[in-house]
Amino acid sequence: MSDRKKRVVWTHRDDQLLLKLWAERATDLGRAKRKRYIYSKISAKMCGKFSAKDIHVKIRNLTQTYRHERKKFVASGDKTKWRLYNEVHQILGQNADNTAEEYESISQDSKFDKSYNALAEAVAVMSTPAPSSSSSSASSKAELLTPLLTRSALSSPVPPHSPSPDPLQLPRRKPATTTNSVETEMIKLMHKQTEMLQSLIEDNKELTNEIVTALREQNETSNEFLALMKSLIEKI
């Protein structure tokens, strides 16, 4: 991962080109729920020098730097020394505080991790064995005895020489059966698991289509670039 980070080097020329492309798609980025496709389009227009994730990280960093510099300016009134401030200000303007939180992560691995963890938790709950009838009966007795003893102590004090009441002789409520509740919870979890799997499948299909489209556009851009280079070489 460290090698990959070392290879991502942004020059001032790259920054200027990104700012231009970002300004063109700023409205789309503010409205779109899934922004990976837009980042892929920007990446293609930059001849694939930076990946869609690189574009996302760069825009996020520029937004955070702008917000930091703007807060300093509002607090002190001193002019910022950041040379990209004016360009980013034209894109974000007064809505920077709201825009910064809108740029969601495009890392599909993170999305799958969250979905997988939720799914694993649901499966773990489903696979937990139901408590035995004896243990559930004992716990039900304890839960029933505690409030009864408390109410009895508060409402009718025991005479000094009277024997303490036998907990086993106190009136009990019939413990509710846990089988139906366990089955109901299992059915709910199964429905939730099915919905999560369907959501993952739909997201994978959409992501695949976006990647294929981005690759096609990048291929077309590369072909145009090669044709242009070939034409220049022939003229030389």
Automatic annotation (TrEMBL):
UniProt keywords, alphabetically: Coiled coil
Domain of life, per lineage: Eukaryota
Disordered, as annotated region: 152-179
Family annotation (InterPro entries): Myb/SANT-like_DNA-bd_dom_prot (IPR026095), Myb_DNA-bind_4 (IPR044822)
Ranges for domain Myb/SANT-like DNA-binding: 8-91
Record bears the keyword Coiled coil: yes
Positions in coiled-coil regions: 190-224
Pfam hit, one: Myb_DNA-bind_4
Bias-annotated ranges (Pro residues): 157-168
UniProt-listed GO biological process terms: positive regulation of DNA-templated transcription
Protein's name according to its UniProt entry: Myb/SANT-like DNA-binding domain-containing protein
Organism: Ceratitis capitata
